[in-house]
Every structure is written in C-alpha cells, then in structure tokens.
Amino acid sequence: MAEPGGGPSVTVSDVQQLVRRKDEIEAQIKACYELLEGQKGVGMHEPLVDAEGFPRADIDLYQVRTARHNIICLQNDHKAVMKQVEEALHKLHAREKEKHAKDEAEALAEAMSQNQSLPQAFAKVNAVTPGSPASISGLQVDDEIVEFGSVNVNNFQNLQNIAMVVQHSEGRPLSVTVIRGGRRVHVGLTPKRWAGKGLLG
Question: Is the pTM of this model over 0.90?
C-alpha cells in the first residue's frame, strides 16, 4: 500500500526500528565521549598541541582524533535518524487520522442506508404487561410495529385488523417485525389465553 504522499507505507515496526537505530547511535556517541574523557578529559575542542606547538605526548592523538571524527559523523547520523523518526510518526498519525475519518464515513453511510431501508411502522407498542404472551415473546414498549402476521403498512386500517389476526392465530406463532433503536427486529409471538386480559397483554 502506498502513502497519499507517494512514498511507501509506514508501519509501527518501521518507527520502532528507527528508534532502535537512534538509541544505538546515542550509545556510540556516549562511548566516544567517554573515550575522550579518558584521555585527560580532552573534549571536542581542546588543543592537541602543547604550548610550544608540538603534539601532546600525554594523550593518544590517534584515538582522540578518531573519537572526535566519529562523534561528528554520528551526530549527523543522529540528526538524520531523528528527522526520519519525525517524518515516520507524522505519516503514521496522518494515516491513523485518515483511517479514522474513513471508518466514521463508512459507519455514517451504513446508518443512513439502514434508515432508508427500514420499513414504515403503522403502530407503536405503548404498554406490555409483565408475564403476558407479548412480554414473553420479547415485545418491548416503544417498539414500532411494521409487520404483524399478515398486517403491514399497506393493508393496515385500524387496530381491529390486528385484533382479527390475533383471534385467528390463537396458539399459533405469529411473525412480528418491529423497529427498535433504529434496527429491524423479528419477534415470534404466540397469542394465547393467560391470567390477564386478551390473548397478548
């Protein structure tokens, strides 16, 4: 996969690898400074000649020169790696942001299409008696009924239609479809006599 910027995709392990490289360089720089420290505390800028202009005899000139040279090279490498780490992190965050935005857009599109594909309800459940056939089937208050057996929004005239279906279906399971929380839910409802009024409750 390619980045929007045209470069190759950056992974978390790429960043970890760069950070490991940075740590290695820092350890090498530290080792070089320690070597200089060991040479009578010669740093990066102390003169390597004595007062008379002769090479100092109290230090290993070759080691000091090599250490100084290595420090300069390593510091350049360190700067380059830090820039790479920064760029890699930037790309990684940009991709996360892009992915997040895409996920949100997809979720929104899915919610929109679901809303469009939800059928129209013709009745709403405003009460369910505990222990009744309706309650046992899982019907809930505020469920919007879109299909009740053979009754749907196209042939529903009044609640008498539902009462007829219930009477004809006593003891037989009815397929009921409701909209609950923006989703279509199917409930199997069997109208039957119980302790309370009616066949549903």
Answer: no
